[in-house]
Predict the 3D structure of the following.
Amino acid sequence: MTTRLRVAMIGHGFMGAAHSQGWRVAPRFFDLPLDPVLHVVTGRDAGSTAAAAAKWGWAESSTDWRATIARDDVDVVDIVTPGDTHAEIAIAALEAGKHVLCEKPLANSVAEAEAMTQAAARAEARGIRSMVGFTYRRVPAATFARDLVAAGRLGDIRQVRAEYLQDWLMDAEAPMTWRLDKQKAGSGSLGDIGAHAVDLAEFITGQTVDSVSGIVETLVHERPLLGEGIGLSGTASAERGRVTVDDVALFTGRLSSGALASFEATRYRTGRKNALRVEVSGTRGALAFDLERLNELEFYDATVAETELGFRRILVTEHGHPYLEPWWPTGHILGYEHGFSHQVRDFSTAIAEGVAPRPSFADGLHVQRVLDAVERSSAAGSRWVPTND
Ligand code: SOE
């Protein structure tokens, strides 16, 4: 019989739904070495936490995360709360001997991310694993892009362009959410979605961003406070509040190979709903990934006959592609939610096999340093700032 992996999830908003789905579905498709059990979900409010438990299939609900972490019958703590609580919960969970999966960005500051990474290193020495939830690495086309680069199909990387564009804040009268509050979110577009662009560009190229020159800017400084409901589906109240985060972040990065990369993160790009795109250009070829077309990868092979040159669209839907074998008959497509099952597969496999999973807390700390360097660069008139790894 497969050993159970008893999971406690802290938080139950949008990401909580995505993670619940991952924990529930992954063992039904993948042959996992450990059997994840949706054991207990924890939130601030008893009523909505119990409702989330019933909706997503968690056996129990609780309003006390410290008590949850202290339980002997919990093996994994999955953190899907806003960034201001990541450090405290993750460090406590690691110290209590629990494996930890933490949503991105790892923390709200470099200092917090450093403390978390130190706690993760101490725990790792005792066989306790930790991972940060940069889930888009696990979209099959993005993983396949990484494989093509690693196999040398692009040659030497000359240039990279990474952007994450959304438009859900275009309406200046849409109510405040915690994602617009620096205290809770750490930063705006920069950390919320720019962090994904940095991680994915580094993952695909196998390189790191070593210095940056950037600018961050707030476009809408004030919004109605939330009346009733939650998030964007909530109603606006008559009171107004100040937006304390960036709305747009633009920056240039110098990669470890010396190549240049450009980055763009905004939630004000009309018509772009969830456009996480990475384009990589090398001496032997090029590729372009676009999350809005997540079952495809554009690939240009510069080594073919001149008369046959051109980007071609690879359908990343075959059983030979990363993660695809156990899903549907070949040629059938996947969606946003599948990345969360792939995350569960990789995390639980690493726990079972006793290896350190990636992206690690150290990887998350590195991204945090890039975000911090962009903010410092912007404050200093876009001067180049090392990311200090
Ligand atoms: C909101 O902009 C958001 O939900 C991010 O917080 C997620 O990380 C990203 O996956 C989708 O957009």
Q: What stands out?
A: The first strand starts at residue 3 and ends at 10.
